[in-house]
Amino acid sequence: MRKRFTVQEYKEGVLSGDRSRLSQAITLAESALESDLKLASDLVQEVLPYTGNSIRIGITGVPGVGKSTFIEAFGQLLVDSGKSVAVLAVDPSSQKSKGSILGDKTQMEKLAGDKRAFIRPSPTGSTLGGVSSKTREAMLLCEAAGFDVILIETVGVGQSETAVKSMVDFFLLLMLAGAGDELQGIKKGIMEMADGVVIHKADGDNIANAKRAKSSYENALHLFPLGENNWSTPVITASSMTKEGLNDSWEMIKKYKDKMQESGFWESNRASQRLSWLDENLQFLLGKFFLEDQQVQKILTKNRKRVENGELSPLALARDLIHTFLRSK
Ligand code: GDP
After folding, report:
1. How far is the C-alpha of 246 from the C-alpha of 242, rounded, in Å?
2. Burial of 263 from C-beta contacts in 10 A (0-12 / 13-18 / 19+)
């Protein structure tokens, strides 16, 4: 078993920006062991006053849209302008995410080698709830370590976007220019979640297509009512190959930050995110403790078949299990 440090030791390491201690602290938060999770949760509480100072950016898009390449190029731009950048990933199918975020070493090598960047592949875990809550803890630990910008990549198409949206300040959607069918296949919900859209790979022969796609998306986005933050989602074209549009992407995010800080939405959004993290953690932990209870497991295993056969009502069994659990406490 790997060595554990005290909360104080982790705290000092993280706050001083010690990379290996930060990595170890994140590993702790990703552990399946209850004792590790307790330590990690004490640590996050300890460093909480030192969190909240970064810009949290979620980056999403279908596989192949160029997320890894964009993160590498965009991260490099930030690092070159003197910012420190941490890259995290949310993905329930972790193998895929590892491939995406670290596997293509030629893409991430430069950024990974920069001392102002920290790249962490997605945690291994089976449930999205578990994985996304671990990513939140990882994000807070990175903030405490002093990173200016946190980039959170999500590979999934669907559920994981919602999870990421609920932990970031700015949600960036990468899209590709199609041949006239730009709006097909894109879930309206994901478009609505976006605070900014980047038409990616706008280089070479694709520039004209990308420009056309930009107008289509602008038109489509105009049809959506403005949200609570009163922000109309900009669409820009960019290429991670030529680096064209990367600076515009950053300017767009900075503009968003300025406007939202001015209106108070920045903080009110974070406040409501904290409350939803609480609700999510409660649900996740309740489920975890309940299903790990031996008595519950025993009855459940014994009676699943009867529910399947239609002999026993699912509600009756569920209620019985809850009462058994409560009585055992
Ligand atoms: P991901 O699956 O979304 O992470 O996509 P990747 O970053 O792995 O990129 C998928 C492919 O698109 C790779 O072959 C990249 O070389 C290519 N690609 C990424 N960015 C660009 C770009 O800006 N322009 C062009 N032309 N190709 C790109």
Report:
1. 9
2. middle
Q: Is 201 in the pocket of ligand 1 (CB under 6 A)?
A: yes
> Distance, CA 67 to ligand 1 centroid (Å)?
7
- The response to whether residue 65 sits with its C-beta less than 6 Å from ligand 1 reads yes
**Which numeric CATH code is attached to 1-50?**
1.20.5.170
Residue 52 near ligand 1, beta carbon < 6 Å: no
Q: Are 199 and 246 in contact (CB under 8 A)?
A: no
68 lines ligand 1 (CB under 6 A): yes
- Does residue 100 line the site of ligand 1, with CB under 6 A? yes
Q: Which atom of ligand 1 is nearest to the CA of 239?
A: 23
Residue 230 CA to residue 266 CA, distance in Å, equals: 12
Q: Residue ranges of the domains in the chain?
A: 1-50, 51-263, 277-327
Which residue type occupies 45? Q
Asked if domains 1-50 and 51-263 share a fold, the reply is no
Q: Is 170 exposed, middle or buried (0-12, 13-18, 19+ CB in 10 A)?
A: buried
What radius of gyration do the chain's Cα atoms show? 22
**Residue pLDDT tens, the chain, 329 long:** 578 899 999 999 999 999 999 999 999 998 888 899 899 999 999 999 999 999 999 999 888 889 989 999 999 999 999 999 999 987 655 444 444 444 444 457 778 888 899 998 766 555 655 667 788 999 999 999 999 999 999 875 567 788 889 999 999 999 998 744 545 455 677 888 899 999 999 999 999 999 999 998 899 888 888 889 999 999 999 999 999 999 999 999 999 999 999 999 999 999 999 999 999 889 888 998 899 899 999 999 999 999 999 999 999 999 999 999 999 87
Report whether 176 contacts 217 (CB < 8 A): no
User: Can you name the CATH fold of 51-263?
Assistant: Rossmann fold (3.40.50)
Q: What is the pTM of this model?
A: 0.90
286, 315 contact by CB (below 8 A):
no
